[in-house]
Structures are given as structure tokens and as C-alpha cells.
Amino acid sequence: MTFATVYCYPTSSRSNWLSDLGDYVGLKIVTKLKQETANYKEIFPLNKAPALITPSGYKLTETIAIFTYIVDKSNKKEFLGITEEEKANNLKWLSFMNSDFVGALYPSIYCLEGLTMEEHIARISRFLKFIENELKIKTTKYLSSDEILISDIFTVKTFDDVVGAGVDLSPYPEIVKYMDSVRPHPLMTRKQSFN
């Protein structure tokens, strides 16, 4: 039985792996492309993606809310963290990556805001330096826990977008090491399908 339908953009790390997430946590999620849904704005008046709708008609937008809702409805709630500190740090990293980091990255990828590529890379580099330092001083194996949490998956998928935008991550050895440590996770090797 289908748990939900998620509408997304095919290249967005904010949403293009949500059916894989569903599979991982044991929930069937159908994924559709926002741009191929004729009545999308009628269903979701803010015209934002990702967006989720359940068979009962419950609608949800906002990346972090959707991630959390999917995992909370599953038998793998520990993917959001176990202790209160892990849960809070997981949410912190989801929020930072989704807002600050992606907010700097996507204008770079799509050459928005009239900045040069060098200016975009400088903006992204500020955040990469911050993350590099955080990884150096962290007391856990991953960002928030000794286990991989959903924020780790989202972070590494977003770093893949950084590399795809032409940013060299080799000056950030802690980030490269961290990415390599998360890559074996099943969610990093799955391939999203769109219905």
C-alpha cells in the first residue's frame, strides 16, 4: 500500500531520493515530477517542491518536515537520532544544510543573483570551511551521532551537488573523509525512480 506521493525536482538533493528513503524505512512512496503534474498549483497553492500527499489527503511541504514525517511514521525512528542531543543536532544539520548551505549553493548552480562564479564559490567556501572545522572538532563519528542519521545522507547528497557545480572539495580533507564514510550507506547507492 502506498504511504504517500511525493512531488519533486529530479536533480534536487532536497527531494530526489525520497522514494529511496521510503524503501529504506519500509514505506512505499511514489515519486512524481512537479513539472509533469498539470494541476500541481491546485494541489499545492504555494507551488513549492518537495511536497507530499497521503492517500487520505494529508498534505505537507518543506523538506525537513517531509523527512521527519516519513521517518516518524516508520519503524526506523532512530534514523532521526536516539538521544535528545542526537535529535537536536540532526535537526540542526538538516536546517543548516537546507537553508544556509543550499541557499548559497543553488544560486551558484543556476547562476542566479547576478554574481560571478568566483563570488558564488567564495560564498559556498565560507560554509565549507565551517563544516570542515566542525568535522575536526566533533565528538561523534558522524555529524550528530556515532550512527548515520538522515542529516548525514542529506549532507552528502548536497555535497555531491557541490561537486557537480564544479567546486573542488580536495582542500577540505575532513569533508572528503566524512563523505567516504557515509557513502556505503544503502541510501547513497539507491537510484530514485519517478512514476
Describe the SSE topology:
Layout lengths: L1 E7 L9 H8 L2 E6 L6 H4 L7 E3 L5 E3 L1 H10 L11 H26 L7 H21 L12 H15 L8 H10 L3 H4 L6
Helix pairs in contact: 4-5, 4-6, 5-7
Short description:
The protein is α+β, with helices and mostly antiparallel strands and 195 residues long. It folds into 2 domains: 2-75, Glutaredoxin, CATH 3.40.30; 80-186, Glutathione S-transferase Yfyf (Class Pi), Chain A, domain 2 (Up-down Bundle). It has helices at residues 18-25, 40-43, 63-72, 84-109, 117-137, 150-164, 173-182, 186-189, and strands spanning 2-8, 28-33, 51-53, 59-61.
Describe the structure.
- The protein is an alpha+beta fold.
- It folds into 2 domains: 2-75, Glutaredoxin (3-Layer(aba) Sandwich); 80-186, Glutathione S-transferase Yfyf (Class Pi), Chain A, domain 2, CATH 1.20.1050.10.
- It contains 8 helices and 4 strands.
- It has helices at 18-25, 40-43, 63-72, 84-109, 117-137, 150-164, 173-182, 186-189; strands spanning 2-8, 28-33, 51-53, 59-61.
- It has a 4-stranded mixed β-sheet, covered by helices on one side.
- The protein is globular.
- 34% of the residues are buried.
- The mean pLDDT is 91.
- This is GST C-terminal domain-containing protein.
- Residues 83-195 form the GST C-terminal domain.
